[in-house]
Amino acid sequence: MFLRLALGCFLLLLSKSTVYSLNPSILSYCGEDLVIPPLPENVLKDLEIKQVQVVMRHGDRAPCSACSTKYSGVWTCDLKEGTFVSKERTARLFQKNYPLHKNVNPGNCGLGQLTDKGYQQHVSNGNVLRQTYIQSMGFFSSHLVSEEVYVRSTDMPRTILSAQAFLEGLYPSDEQNSTVLTIHAVDIQRETMFPNRNTNPLLIKYEKELIESDSYKKHTRDYTQPIKQEIADALDIDIKEVDLLVILDCTMAHICNGFDMPSTMSKSLFERAVNDITWHHKSLYRYPSPQDYSRVAMGTFIRELYNQMFDNIAGKTSIKLALYSAHDTSVMPLLSAFSIWDDIWVGYAKTVIFELYRSVSSGNYFVRVMYGGRAHKMIGCSDVLCSWEDFDSLVALFDEDERIDTSVPKVEVLNQREEL
Predict the structure, then answer these.
(1) pTM: predicted TM-score of the whole model, two decimal places
(2) Beta-carbon-side half-sphere exposure of residue 388 (alpha carbons within 13 Å)
């Protein structure tokens, strides 16, 4: 079934080292340099930045699936996952290791394991934030202050390691940055950073209705099934054995890491498969309407992002940076909820940044969201700098429960904050 949301395990990014001359939008899946566009000087001079939130996909990884022997990749993962165990007077660091050639895929990588390349992608991203918010704007503390940083990750090694890599780029390890940081995680069955059927069974209803719709059936019959048959012929397997999610996982992982591809897998077939899986997810994110799906699938997480900002405005938190390490199936529906997804599959280490600003002259608050190297105007906002009132109204669309009063605190509260 195409629409099972497998935490991004089914789609990997593409590398320019491949022998194929692929569409640039597909090649971008391997990851791109993070760019934080500056505000115009005439606008910035009246604004002070109050908070930054980052929602990111993990970096490059090994396949999440068992790949056919038609694929030639031998996977090398030098990056090791360590666990520090401390109780009473005993302290010890343990390291996880996947023995060579004893895993599902050839090499020493576990399924979906973050690669060295993926780790470095987020070190680089963290360094971009260091240059922007420490060296240029002087907003973050010059050294790590745990009370100013909140980190949350899905409970998976590749996202946890990606968060660690990001923080290493932001605050390189030294004596000043040796503070122990907590990475918050919840059981995957209760995770809200991606559309989770366990937390809201209504997603199952939406998916079933979509799959049973005439338009969806027609697309599957006329487009998806022929692609599956072509792949079955190319790999010399029965069509019943073709799981396009597995095919895409293995194919893209290999291309992204420069391995040879099955010679029978044509460029045209490959690109049509990418376009098809994107169409299926785009259709899901907009059923029965973009607002209805976003409310059920991402409403709780959007409220979490909102609450971080609201608590900052109310003077209830000292958090300057909130970092959320997740998956492509986290970032895409989040972008879709705000009507800023470009319908291109989210690549490795791609990052969404929310900035909270306060006007020095008026005391009003504004939110700016950035993705893909530019700032975006969210639906319902009059500008890329979205007023707090408009942002509040937008977030209200995604609430399932009765709203509480979340208007901007009154002037006397703001003045009290300034005194503190």
Answers:
(1) 0.89
(2) 20
